[in-house]
Amino acid sequence: MRNLIIILGDQLNSDSAAFDGFDPSLDAVWMAEVAQESLKVWSSKPRIAFFLSAMRHFSEVLRDRAWKVFYRELMSSAGEWQGPSGPPVICNAESFSAALTEFTGRLKPEKWIMVEPGEWSVQKEISDAATAAGIPFELREDRHFLCTHAQFESHAKGRKQLRMEFFYREMRQRYAVLMDKGKPEGGAWNFDSENRKSFGKGGPPLHFPPRRFEPDAITKRVLVLVNERFAGHPGDLASFEWPVTAEDAQVALDDFIAHRLREFGDWQDAMWTSEPWLFHSRLSAVMNVKLLDPRRVIAAAENEWKQGRAPLAGVEGFIRQILGWREYVRGIYWLSMPGYVELNALGADQPLPPFYWTGDTEMACLADALKQTLQLGYAHHIQRLMVTGLYALMFGVRPREVHSWYLAVYVDAVEWVELPNTLGMSQHADGGLMASKPYIATGKYIQRMSNYCSGCRYDPAESTGPTACPFTTLYWDFLLQHEPAMRMNHRMSMQVKNLVRLDETKREAIKGQAAQLRRGAQKSSSLV
Questions:
Q1: d(Cα 323, Cα 309) in Å, to the nearest integer?
Q2: Domain 149-210+260-336, CATH 2.50.20.10 — does that match?
Q3: How confident is the model over 198-256, as pLDDT tens digits?
Q4: I need a surface site. Which of 31, 204, 460, 514 has the fewest CB within 10 A?
Q5: Which of 1, 244, 7 is nearest to 114 (CA)?
Q6: Whole-number Å distance between alpha carbons of 257 and 310
């Protein structure tokens, strides 16, 4: 064997740079399912099942090319290598690098080739394994993305502050997206102010939920495996219906463009009880394992605007999430690792409340978002930022624990995208590298953007007392705790000034109630 092409679970694009120069007579593909990847964090069943099913389907795509594919399936104990010929080979290794090293010892390839992974520790693990095995290792650039590491480093060089908005403008110009003779279409770069509507008392208008993808034979076997092998992990698989092939991913894109993009902008920040999907695309998972090229998604959305079938504000907002945020957080991740994961600028020291793993809380907003997350492996960006993330931030949860939870429960979670969004954007633990201010709000924000509060026993207008909303209590407690630092942030000045409304008696009552919330959350899985 000349080259062993290593394919990871988030590298399932058929046009990957890993396959450049592939010769079926000389080279082979290596893929492996190992338990360690599901145990680094307490991965939910939907997340494990999504990755395993997508990987198994992709291995079949490569075999259809008549390529040599060595695939190790995760079984009840040891895994078996499925090769192009010969009997299966049992592999007892439980870590990725150990399985790779054991396999290499048997087939003795001349070189390992891999596209850069989506996790810093995986890149180091495989690089170290290659060094220990004394085998040449070629790491290739991932052309799935629209901004290379070198390009992002060039953008960041010499800047006192990094801000996504300026990066996004550069990307719009580089790829001529929503541009007219060098200027942004509609005369503005950002229409975010038009994309913050709430449903009101009438609830969401008529909408089409995302296309369902019934599990095929491969996926059904994966679901059985996950339920058996990872029986104690959170989440359930009763409603697993994710797209797990490139063909399904394209159908999912077409479905979103046809049925939800038109209204996406208006309602992208709105929430409603028992409505997990609303007008969102549900495409992040298939993009993050590279079953769907972001260029195709951007082009499809832009074309809808050009054809007059979707408004500019909504299309721009959707494209900004992909061409802007998605590329920006990847740049931040690789620019800042490995130290980024340890950051804790606000000194948060609380453990994650146990109810994050059960949804067992009387707070209606958290109960809905958490139970939905555990059931489906999904929550849209406002549920993540302004419900689950907001509570953890104001509660003072250790950022690394919040990161581990998000990485564990969401189907679309790959560390390069999850970590900066969680630790930086949501928890402000990087001190402002990702976002210029901590995103904090009282329960009144949730009341305005959802119907959660109408069925909740807590009052978002109250900060103390038996019916006080924990979000409102913790909001004021957060400002009191971090008042000196927040006064230094010009974007927080108005919120800090509101502290003058609190006399000393009220301040002490808020602090006492917040302390009681933190004690109560750790004693049981409920706040009361």
A1: 21
A2: no
A3: 999 899 998 999 999 999 999 999 999 999 999 999 999 999 999 999 999 999 999 99
A4: 204
A5: 7
A6: 9
